[in-house]
Amino acid sequence: MNNPSDSPYIEVEGRGCSPAVAALMLRLRVFCNLRWLVILGIIVITLVATGVFRIDFPTLPVYIICGSIALYNLVLHFQVRGLGKLPPELLVSRMRNYGIVHIVLDVLAFVVLLHFTGGVENPFIFFVALHIIGGSAILRRGTVYTIATIAFSWVLLLIGLEYAGILPHVNLGGFVSPTLYKEGSYLLAVAAALGSILYATAYMATAVTSELRKRQREVVKLREHLLQEKTGELEQASQQLVNLEEERSRFLRFLGMTAHDLKAPLAAIQSYFKVMLGGYSGELNEKQTNMLDRSSQRITELLSLISDLLDIPRIETGQILEEMKEVSFLEVLEHALEDLRDLASQQEVEIKTELPSALSPVHASAARLQQVMTNLVSNAVNYAASGTVTVRVAEEDNHIQVEVMDNGIGIPPEDLPRIFDDFFRASNVETKGTGLGLSITRRIIQAHGGSIWVESPCPETSVGSKFIFTLPKKHEAEGE
Ligand code: ADP
What we know:
5-stranded mixed β-sheet, 11 helices, 62% helix, binds adenosine-5'-diphosphate
């Protein structure tokens, strides 16, 4: 949301400005830079006119005027730089005022220069229109017409004063006839051309710039609107997330309570079945024994599902953190494998281990890590049916890496993305199961700050599956 490219504001001198303000500031700077070029241009033209074309006119006043332009340009340059410190509400009006000062000074310098370089004889007289184009980039439409009128009347005044002999006329000797400035029809034609150029330029330039400004305002409005819309959507989405999170924790509480309430009566029923199956409540015939045995098996499955269901809220509510201490993973693995050897030999599966001689301790819950290893290895044994299961442990720089490989049925590729989801069972299994073992395993590993993934078929053997998980050597738990 705070991405600068999303903001309708532009960074100018370390502060956010609207595009209009940024554009004004940039144009004032461009004016200052252009003025240096203009000074250079005047000097070059003067040198070429006098040196190459041998046009005769006094050059000293020209250089003095260039010096004056350079002087006020320096002042204006620092004024423009100082604008950055002004409060935003003063910026636009102050910039426009500076713009008027810049252009009026330029027009004045132009008229004085014109006087010393032939007045009405100077073909560059029409360059006065460039001030109108510049002005339209910063000033309002009305002000641009005022500047055009000022420029026009000052040039007319100059021509008039020279014509009347009140101001001495400087002839561009060798370039035009010395009496041209006295020829009424020529003066009238220049005045008419100048007037029409000035006002036509004012009209065209202000029309274009006001259109541009309008578009700029529309773009800013649109971006602001989009930004508001995006912010609204984001707020809505984050509210939905909060609601979902609340709903989820309510559901987890409910799950925990229900599973807990179901567990006690089921355990009691199970113990009655065991008593009856043991023959302590009287002789049972074969059919009764069979039925009770099957019921007892079902209750065992149900109790295992309930203990899985109870695990989810316990892990999610951060109970693991309380159980964490420095643990030797190799010891945890040994305990887990001790319990699993029976199951493995029943299934004619051999469990092989590839272990380092020493391993850094991990900050973990020993009971939960044992649950992880039991889940992964018992799955490997169950889904291998016969063959080998390999458990490999390696130490890396920041974590230990554990791999459980089997050469069993593997996991179909389309099921891989969902294999760690709650209650998910792959399409190629027929045996009974809850589909919760892997999702609980993932939760435990993540609660330890590690990660878990699966590769199937196992890359080394091209059959079966390989479950890999990592455990950070030092878990960055809260408060550590
Ligand atoms: P359960 O084993 O009770 O079904 P799990 O969450 O432990 O539940 O496993 C989910 C599913 O992942 C299994 O049903 C099975 O399809 C697949 N699976 C897990 N481990 C293996 C394995 N080693 N080989 C093949 N499939 C596996």
